[in-house]
């Protein structure tokens, strides 16, 4: 990574930094350097493993960013997404929606345990790993708050009630983010994550069949139909890239795609259907630095959702199971 840009309040727009200040006043205060004495090598260790893993397989960056998002939206950023099914809890969050990146988290956790056993929570590992995945895939970085603790509870039902659906229109999207303390700035900025990674056809064939959605570019739809035939029960569900342009580079390309009507989901296209979200899509498309500032601020804000601190929760030994 030749020239990594570190976004700070000094160099960046007051609006984003002010937003950051508001968040910390309204929710549990997480510091920026929780492990500075207990595990000074924590962040460096996590970064090294994430960089190594994503060098070998760039799709891991998308997976780690999405894991942090899902963790935070379903029962707070408490690593509940990482708990495996057990006899005590047969239907944890991860049984609800298939996600990638769990093996990568195991590798990161193993490296962190090797330098500081029992010290760094899995919830913080997800937040740092998402940040480092942004560093790798977008070339900019930001400071991440830490001190989250890992929860014991993980329920598939919480995924169904808290995760926004790709079939949502703008009102449901806004409502879903508002319930988590996030606003339309956050909704639009974070949607930029759909410049990387992949999606299964089943998430957007509603826009291809029986007729092509008129809000989708016809040539793009024709292209997608080549990979995604009309859905038939039991048939395979292939994947396509979220972005037709530079699909492993996290950038404001998503917003350019949205304006060109070349995004996959009903929920992506919905960002153009209200005046205020459309205005932000246009700003983010036109100004890459502005989007980066907003994205970083919104990731920090998302990482504060319903966190466990102090003596609540625990620091898990294995990210896949509560300590016994
Ligand atoms: C606004 C509401 C959102 C909806 C409805 C949504 C929905 C989806 C869906 C359906 C997929 C494809 C999954 C698959 O078929 O395997 C996806 C992929 C992805 N989403 Fe979102 N998402 C939203 C917001 C976010 C946010 C806030 C982030 C992160 C900041 C994010 C990051 C990603 C990434 C990185 C992928 C690609 C994952 C991979 O390739 O492993 N999404 N999203
Ligand atoms: C990352 O990869 C390099 C080169 O393969 C290796 O020397 C280093 O030990 C790895 N670091 C981690 C933390 O895995
Ligand atoms: C998806 O992106 C990868 C990486 O850039 C590329 O190799 C692949 O051909 C793309 N797939 C499609 C269907 O365009
Ligand atoms: C979480 O699990 C740990 C270890 O099993 C236990 O000590 C603790 O009381 C549990 N906390 C809650 C709130 O269930």
Automatic annotation (TrEMBL):
Active site: 70
Binding site for substrate: 164
Signal peptide region: 1-28
Binding site for Ca(2+): 71, 76, 78, 80, 93
Top class in the EC scheme: oxidoreductase
One GO term describing the cellular component: plant-type cell wall
GO biological process: hydrogen peroxide catabolic process; response to oxidative stress; response to stress
Catalytic activity: 2 a phenolic donor + H2O2 = 2 a phenolic radical donor + 2 H2O
Domain (Plant heme peroxidase family profile): residue spans on this chain: 29-323
Record-linked PROSITE patterns: PEROXIDASE_1, PEROXIDASE_2, PEROXIDASE_4, PROKAR_LIPOPROTEIN
Location in or out of the cell: Secreted
A Pfam family it matches: peroxidase
EC number(s) reported in the record: 1.11.1.7
Cofactor(s) listed in the protein's UniProt record: heme b; Ca(2+)
Site residues (Transition state stabilizer), renumbered to this chain: 66
Positions contributing to heme b binding: 194
Molecular function in Gene Ontology: heme binding; lactoperoxidase activity; metal ion binding; peroxidase activity
Cysteines joined through disulfide linkages: 39-116, 72-77, 122-319, 201-228
PANTHER family in the record: PEROXIDASE, PTHR31517
Protein's job: Removal of H(2)O(2), oxidation of toxic reductants, biosynthesis and degradation of lignin, suberization, auxin catabolism, response to environmental stresses such as wounding, pathogen attack and oxidative stress.
Protein name: Peroxidase
Organism: Hordeum vulgare subsp. vulgare
